[in-house]
Amino acid sequence: MDTPIHRIGIVLLIVILLGGCTWKQQTESAYPVSPQPVLPGEYFITHHLMTDQGLIRTSFAEQHIYLSESLGLWMDYLVRKKDQNSFDQQFGVLQDEFLLDHHLLSWQIESDQKSKANALVDDLRVVAALQKADRLWKNAAYQTTAKEIAQALKDKNMYRGILSDYYDASTNRTSHTITLSYLDPKAIKELESLKIFTKQMTSNQL
């Protein structure tokens, strides 16, 4: 039965439905969905180990310790997840907290004190993550920082033409040993793509 009341009711129903769709669209645009679902491990890190400044603690101990290893692994994960906002936060942590004056990373921050030594494996991992991020999001700052770290590795972190475990700025000493698991072939090849290493230097490492 088609009466004015029925027509008014139908119009009101349409308005309510359209209003609901518009509100949903506004809500979705205000709170964009993460590129991929948040995994349980990621939730645990961001809600229980990460500080307000974006540093990742190693444990729940009262004395907080932060490692360049955690930073590099997290940056690599965020590139794989294609989460640029979170990656940029960690890029800021890298620049503000971990990079030393000579452009290598402090391997550990304890009681707000940065170690003056780096760990090759962590620096290489960060260089590789920055290069992946630059290819994905085309941010020149990523590659500039990767190149500075790579140049410092070449200048400070090699012994007899081979990358070594660490450089300690407090003693101006370069390690004379290399742990094989530190030599990441893909990351080392990024030093060549940045034009820091020649093909021969890369071949020597491999």
Describe the secondary-structure layout.
Layout: H1 4-30, H2 40-49, E1 65-67, H3 68-81, H4 84-98, E2 108-110, E3 113-114, H5 120-137, H6 140-156, E4 158-159, E5 162-163, E6 167-168, E7 173-174, H7 185-193, H8 199-205
Antiparallel strand pairs: 1-2, 2-3, 4-5, 6-7
Helix pairs in contact: 3-4, 3-5, 5-6, 5-7, 7-8
Could you explain how this protein is built, in words?
The protein has 206 residues and is mainly alpha-helical. The chain is built from 8 helices and 7 strands, in the order ααβααββααββββαα. It has helices spanning 4-30, 40-49, 68-81, 84-98, 120-137, 140-156, 185-193, 199-205, and strands spanning 65-67, 108-110, 113-114, 158-159, 162-163, 167-168, 173-174. The longest helix is centred in the N-terminal third of the chain and has 27 residues, at 4-30. The protein is globular.
